Sequence to fold (541 residues):
Amino acid sequence: MNLIYERKHWSIAAWLTLLLTPVALAAAPAQSQPDASTSAPSSSAAAQPSSETQCADGKDNDGDSMTDCADQDCLKTDVCKADGNPENTNKRCSDWIDNDGNGAVDCDDSACGGPGITVCKGSWKGSLNTGGGSGNSGAPEEEIPDLGAGMSVEDLIGKGSDKDGERNDQLCSDGIDNDKDGRIDCADFGCRFDPTVTVCRGNPGMRFSVVAGIEQSYNIKSYRDGDGTMDTRFSRIQLRSFGPVPLIQNSFYLLSMRAEKTPRLTFAMFQMPVGKSGHYININSGGGGLSPSLILSAAKQLLLEPAYYVYNAFEQGNGASAEFGGPIGDSGKLQFRVFVAGGSGRFSGNVGGRYFSYNNTNYTYAAGAQVAWNILGHYSRFDNPFLYTPVPTTLAFTFGAKYDQRAQERYAATNSSLVLRTNRLVLMAENYSKQELEFESFQTAYVVQLGFLVIPKRLLIAADFGEYLIPSPMKNPPSLLQTDLKKQLEERQWRLAAHMYFYRNIGIVSLLYKNRSVANPKPGLPANLEQQLSLEAQYRF
Fold:
């Protein structure tokens, strides 16, 4: 989804979407990043002060990841008060002070984009500021590997002492060194140089992001829209507002909306840190349970749209959800999350009320838990599967289980996924299964997705294949199937896509072929077949 990095101090929480439609993704709180020479935590926790003791020494004295005037402890000190003079130098554009009193701090002030000011130029410029002393990153120049011929800053991720483990807005704003390479949040190469990370662009604050795509489609064969039909439309407009919760370090909020046929708020999330060990509590709109597909933005779908059959019968949404999670142990290899959800939301976009298309008298709720194991490297379920440059090897496995009660059914479900990223290849596999307790029916779905970066920064190809199966039929089903039960039909789908980056990773042209077969609801009739070819151009910024 989006990108950029800043200089030495910061990172703030933020994630996805505002005022109109799609699904969300993004993230991130605020934290400052001191020079590498001072970024290591104190060897003696007892000797570390409980608050910032000096507000102009360039150090994080109290170890809360906020430096000098970025730390709330320094807000009322003389050194952090505005002097009324313009923001017109590198120093004044990176001191966390609204010097000219116009309401815009540092890089959020348009004056900091003036001639000679380099601290507000991020990775979207494609190069580092190497003009003496520290670059934009805040780390000493000698710690940044040299760029070889044809290289850009994205190629530095995973090089030298950097470990490739922080590459999304969530991890780049939590105040934790997730991949244990000695760099926290915006000081990490992945957070600074991966173009999909937005929270390290400059000053933390509320941000706005857009994903927009226009599509030309041709239905080769369609049981719904007719054969040989063509259409041209905006296929997606996703609006996202995200940023830190004011005055709460390492916090994060996200509002995601889609503005298509019916503008709707698709996801809302508010996350707060619990302690300093990386644990958190998250309150959200109940649209994401176990499947990673549901929490990825429209800009992160390898085949433009998620494989809906993988979660359609398993993830039916709630009105609101509360989640607690974080690392297990100090290595960061194991992560956990537990959640409870309730209410009658049936699909994303049910924020603020209840939706009924049928007589639902049951109280709907869900409860579950999930564990992620980073076998090699570090992977997050918020990571972008789109490859823009070659990546170090990462291998991760996730398993979760839940109990769910809906309007007409009760079931226990499990979800498992495997992700492998190595060099130019990304491979993802997911399975979702459930046992109906009301009708004694077992259902399962799976999808395997593959992406290969043919030409770095130019061409990515992708494919997937999957099925939704009902091995055992329902026993004693209700006389009238309502809710999602009536839509649970066996399905098989495979897709091919080619993505060409025409403007960095922001502008993409995609060619997609889809072949989908869905069981006919009328017994004895052949399956319905759908074949579609589409060309889509999208901007993601």
